[in-house]
Amino acid sequence: MAESPLFSASGVPSTEMQQQIINIAEKLRQSLESKLESESREKLTTYVEQGFNALTARMAAGIPESVRQQMLQAVIDETLGFGPIEPLLNDDSVTEVMVNNSQQIYVERGGKIFLSEVRFLDDEHVVRVIERIIRPLGRTIDRRWPLVDARLPDGSRVNAVIPPSAVDGPNITIRKFSKKKLSVEDLIRFNSLSPAMAEFLKACVVSRLNVVVSGGTGSGKTTLLNVLSGYIPNDERIVTIEDAAELQLHQEHVVRLETKPPEPTDPQGRSVAIRDLVINSLRMRPERIIVGECRGGEALDMLQAMNTGHDGSLTTIHANTPRDTISRLETLVLMAGLDLPINVVRKQIVSAINLIVQQARLRDGSRKVTNITEVQGLEGETVILQDILSFEDQGEQDGKVIGRFRPSGVRPSFMPQLKQHG
Description:
This protein is an alpha/beta fold. It has 13 helices and 15 strands. It has helices at residues 15-31, 41-55, 65-80, 86-90, 123-134, 184-189, 195-206, 221-229, 274-281, 298-307, 322-334, 342-352, 415-420, and strands at residues 94-101, 104-109, 112-115, 147-151, 157-161, 171-175, 211-215, 238-242, 254-258, 288-291, 314-318, 355-361, 367-379, 382-397, 400-407. Strand 12 and strand 13 (367-379) form a beta hairpin. The chain is globular. The protein starts with 14 loop residues before the first helix and ends with a helix. The model has no long low-confidence stretch (mean pLDDT 89).
């Protein structure tokens, strides 16, 4: 598309045009306020088009039709969507949107990060979009508590920070959910794991082993947790616990729980944390407990649940290696506030956890399962870990990491349990 003074070749409006788009959108939002919650997106889009035509009738004669269509789409995005970042959210090739400030927006494509041409008008514009995201969820953000976690209607994860905590202006980080739920076949096709690893993990989940998926930020832990959860038999009662509900389980017997931040109007500042939900879930007759991520004292309650009959539970944790996962679990258990000796903590861990599945984002942006590791027990004060399968990095070819998935040749100690479940 040819570039005009009003829109760039990629469709980004000039500052003057963006201000005009915002002015029109604000008028339309005011006129549609009573309909925004009740009408369908299709009807609202029709109302916006009609209002746009009425408001721009005078200027239409001097504007080329192609520019007018760009302007209309931008007004629709600003009125009904999330403003300038709406096209990025609709772009299937974009997996993450990172708004550092109103004038600097990065996107992730194919595991690589690129600077986008898209801009907000100013800081107030960013804050308005943040409020639009969190309002339907009953969450708030202000100077007293300038942080918020939320999700978009499609399940994409959102984190936002505003001043005074955000020094350079309000920022937004959106981890997009694929419109198509990734299956184990997709992960095999992406070479994230081998067919043999997938079959082994399926056997472990069906056999009710307790599994921890570990990895760094953006390594694909939640995607893998989703895939593993899909192996749980349909007749089992599952309770999922998350900060922001992201898991997409296909089973029917699922209860989804989500944390709740303190209400600004509540003088006692009461909130519902992951730990509260884990404790409560034990009273809900769960056959499987899935915790989206252990990051605090709830790790102790999760281990206790695994050790008291709730086997087959799943969770994720931030750690770079299976050995680091054990150290991180020890730290999280101590955050529960109980003065437990470290050897008691380690006994709890080795008694509860059967398997650690290590996920990593490699230097070429690809995501792979790098280790499937059994927690075998304690020897003295050392937790014994044994790799069952691992990824062997063999260098790069044409900018892509190459390697092979290699079995260790060691039979896991829980093989009798796998045989019992067929």
